[in-house]
Amino acid sequence: MASAQEASRPFAAFSDVSIPEDIPVEGDISVPVAPSTRDDGLSTLDEPVKETVLRDLRAVGNKFVHVLYPKRSSVLLRDWDLWGPLLLCVTLALLLQGGAADSNDQGGPQFAEVFVIVWFGSIVITLNSKLLGGTLSFFQSLCVLGYCIMPLTVAMAVCRVVLFTTVETVGFAVRLLVVTASFGWSTFASTAFLADSQPANRKALVVYPVFLFYFVIGWMILTFSP
Amino acid sequence: MASPKDLQFQEFEEAAELLSADPGASTLSMSANAPFATVGASTAGEDVRLDVSEDEEGQEESSELLGEQKPSGGFWTFEYYQSFFNVDTLQVLDRVKGSVMPLPGRNFIKHYLRSNPDLYGPFWICMTLVFSVAISGNLSTFLRQMGNSSYHYRPQFHRVTIAAIAIFLYAWLVPVGLWAFLTWRQGAERQIGGYSFLETVCVYGYSLFIFIPTSILWIIPLEWLQWALIVVAMVISGSVLVLTFWPVVRDDSKVMAVGTVMTILVLHALLAIGCKLYFFQTPVQTPSSPLTPTAPLYFFQTPVQTPSSPLTPTAPVNYTNLTVKPH
């Protein structure tokens, strides 16, 4: 009887539970408003165009400075961009034009040939370093190789200026010196960035194609004859 | 309840029994298992037993089967191609050294590749050879014409394209053909010991290495020296190929064996002589009468452009029709 009573009222033991009046029940039922779009680092929709363009230009210029003084910094690698390599490649290809204009097949490289050599060379070297177990990403490697063409482009400009003088051997000696120095600088700068990402027993395997790449570009610059 | 110590002792005893049964087999499995670091103790027994059964069919086959590293993944994954670049600097240098100094009895594939063919060597040796031949050819033309006042230097960059096509086609199509032919003969004869496609490409690529210093030395404008260099390079490079492929074809019929080896050597010689003749021209004083622009004469025309006779456009050279004019 007592058990049946208890069964019919299973929660009878809790009948004396009461909520004290003095404990307030609090809460906030307001819906959070969407954050305002005035977020400093992310929204660039409202800034002037000049600001947008200058930001990219500053990034490119910053990387040029890093190539000039190659220290082991990660700025070049972290924020890669391909504007600089494109600019350098187009400048180099344009400067290599205008040579050997009389014969079409005995002359120097055409614009497309320079482009193909630079870009496919960079892609092949990047694939090579990745296949050998490198840790740089594809575009980071392309970025480094492209930016390190800068000394050679400068050398090309210097060579074109030197070629305006008609002194043959002295001019050639100056050009040889300038191209050799810039080739060495390019190779040194790019290996400073690339060699760290390779396992120690394969560093030479990765550096050699870079050496060949800049050597071929240096050769194209040195043999330019208007 | 058996303590772990008892279980350990039992495993050791089982392995010890197998070791005493066939001491030779265990050493094979030890050396073959060295690259497979993940093999656990439980499978060591199975590998030893596997070795015993394979031992009857010959050491070569077992070492091939157990030492060969199969490329992981399908051909659409990156790891598949990464397995072809599994070499260190010292290994590449060692293989290059082996291609330059072929010793009789040292099969390049068996001795140097050891079931780890790589694509790094063939590809970059071919690239270097392309540029070295083109650049050296340009330099040699320049040196020959230095005394000629009417000569204006030309970079002749189109030669790079031609050299690239010729060398890459040779280094990749001839191994394909040779491998296909050897596999067909192997299949017909039921022989063991053929080479995989990658090993064939690898040995061809490394055998081209000797031509890089040869092409640089071809700049020296001495005719006898150039032909002597060709002979030396052909001897070294050809012997690497012959030492590699002779053990495979000698079980075949005599005619086929000699024919295969002769074809390999002839193709190799054609490449060497073709490169030498096309890129390193000997300036022959062409007579004033107009000559028909046939392929052999094109080689001996100096690069000086006379305004009245335009140079024939660069046609792809058919090496088999090459006739060499005697000096």
Automatic annotation (TrEMBL), chain A:
UniProtKB keywords: Membrane, Transmembrane, Transmembrane helix
Bilayer disposition of the protein: Multi-pass membrane protein
Residues in Yip1 domain copies: 70-220
Pfam family for this entry, one: Yip1
InterPro entries linked: Yip1/4-like (IPR045231), Yip1_dom (IPR006977)
Keyword Membrane: yes
Ranges that cross the membrane: 80-99, 111-132, 144-166, 172-194, 206-225
Biological process annotations from GO: endoplasmic reticulum to Golgi vesicle-mediated transport
Top-level taxon of origin: Eukaryota
Localization per record: Golgi apparatus membrane; Membrane
Transmembrane helix keyword on record: yes
GO cellular component: Golgi membrane; trans-Golgi network
Recorded family membership: Belongs to the YIP1 family.
Protein name: Protein YIPF
The organism of origin for this protein: Austrofundulus limnaeus (Annual killifish)
Gene behind the chain: yipf6
From TrEMBL, chain B:
Segments forming domain Yip1: 100-272
Membrane keyword on record: yes
GO terms of biological process kind: vesicle-mediated transport
Organism domain of life: Eukaryota
Cellular component annotations (GO), alphabetically ordered: Golgi membrane
Main location: Golgi
GO molecular function: small GTPase binding
Residue intervals passing through the bilayer: 119-140, 160-182, 203-221, 227-248, 255-279
Membrane association type: Multi-pass membrane protein
Localization (cell): Golgi apparatus membrane; Golgi apparatus, cis-Golgi network membrane
InterPro entries named among the record's database cross-references: Yip1_dom, Yip5/YIPF1/YIPF2
Protein keywords: Membrane, Transmembrane, Transmembrane helix
Family, per entry: Belongs to the YIP1 family.
PANTHER family (alphabetical): PROTEIN YIPF, PROTEIN YIPF2
Protein name: Protein YIPF
Source organism (scientific name): Austrofundulus limnaeus (Annual killifish)
Taxonomic path: Eukaryota, Metazoa, Chordata, Craniata, Vertebrata
